[in-house]
User: Fold this.
Amino acid sequence: MKTLVDPDRALAAGLASIRSDFQVPDNFPPDVIAAAKEAASRPLRDHVDRTATRFVTLDPASSTDLDQAFAIEQAGTDLVLRYAIADVAWFVADDDPIDAEAWRRGETIYLPDGKATLYPPLLSEGAASLLPDGDRPAVVFAVRVAPDGKATLDGAERALIRSAAKLAYETVKREDLPAGFDELARRIGAAEDARGAARVDPPEQEMVHGDDGRLRLAFRPRSMAEDDNAGLSLATNLAVATALRAHHTGLFRVMAPPDPRAVERLRHTARCYALDWPREETLEQFSRTLDANEPRSAAMMLAIRRAGNGASYAPYRAGTTPWHAAMAATYAQATAPLRRLADRYVIQAALAVANGRPVPEGVVAAFEKLPKVMARADGRSSQIEHAVIDLAEAVLLAGREGEVFGATVVDGDDGSGHVQLDDVPVIVRINSAGLIPGEQVNVQLVAVDVDKRTTRFVPVGQIGH
Assistant:
């Protein structure tokens, strides 16, 4: 849950209940901690010394689990992105206690009041994190980006790096970034547009008190540096995916496009937010017009993110093209191994392929098992996210029972449907026959149960189309 923050702890009691209900782990078993301590002190070898290269990281100021550092250099008309990824596989051996626990967890779980990490913090926020307090082992991908933005994997190596600066989205200045950063981001963005990709990155939401004293959800500003930095990760993942597929191996992130009913529902949501979406414009085209720092657009971006069919994992299969509709490309994830189990194996495969070696048998075997493991982890995270959203909505609306809200019908069937409240970023289900998508209605809040994370609305009248 990276899309909601709660600085005043308005959700504290409810979050404790969610952690209990979903059995979110709050620590690691003693054998895992012991293995992490041993791994953190393991002497480094087989890493090329690249400490003379000026790498930097760019993340939220509070982040300490730093997966990525980068440097940029010019190579004729091309730009070469040196993308250093935390070398988690150096610290975690197959079937050791750390590995076994990571397979049980699958990924880091995020909640507004903290996270349950995939690996012990001694590693994920210490020895394996690319912090600027000393030398760190990494896998450095050389990603060549052409003037048209096409990214190819030009090499990979295990290297010792030293981050020169921990840059933060909130405070970074353009002069702090490596030369070529802006041009690299522009090229990557142009390639996305040319592919027809629809990268939708909504800003974080924050529970705040309004002028009337009531809690409300506000969007935190999203910096251009954050979007541009996401592009570096995207280009690396695309380059890795292409290289793996060319060598008939890999684990890919795949996603089908939203079905026509979901797109139509989004059109009604756009109408609710008074956003212009011409009928002849596709969802991808419309998505590229949204501004994450404009509240209505930001709310729409959240709706688009939640309307997708959901991404899954698929191992390489001969004769099949793994496809990610939002990226409009074959796509893999390799850039967040401290937070996603699968990335560790994709990195090992890419490292082997880039150096002309066979992919280790253990990695190939893992590709077959990981889709099920990651689906379970993603499903759990999704359930927790929905529970947090339900909690936030209940907390926001508590004490407002009896109020009538304007709303727009976004979908409906014979006996019920969903409506988007006009003034509160909440979609609710109501029981009412004859709901017409796109219709404006009034609904009354009749009950709120914060402990159960539920709200109940009833229709009180229709006000036309």
